[in-house]
Design a protein that fits this description.
about 100 residues; single chain; about 25% helix; Alpha-Beta Plaits; alpha+beta; four-stranded antiparallel beta sheet
Amino acid sequence: MYLTMNRFRVREGQEAAFEEVWQSRDSHLKSVDGFESFHLLKGEAADGIRLYASHTAWRDRAAFEAWTRSEAFRAAHRGAGSHADMYDGPPVLEVFESVQSIA
């Protein structure tokens, strides 16, 4: 498994708008070979910022990289910068390769 995670710092008071953007978008993920799951997680709030993280699980790194080069990726990310006012800085991408898995 290959896990990609984006961490978002959302300005306090913008949480509902942020969640609506994510819940109303067409991610195109279900049609992508190697896609396994997606989760949007809400974290703690402190100092006027609410943390969020999006986690996407992929079969392997090659599947994720193919997604980033696909038309589905471009379609899912159109207009991504149009909501900059709700963020305290850009998202931070982190990627992880599975070392152990227990199901």
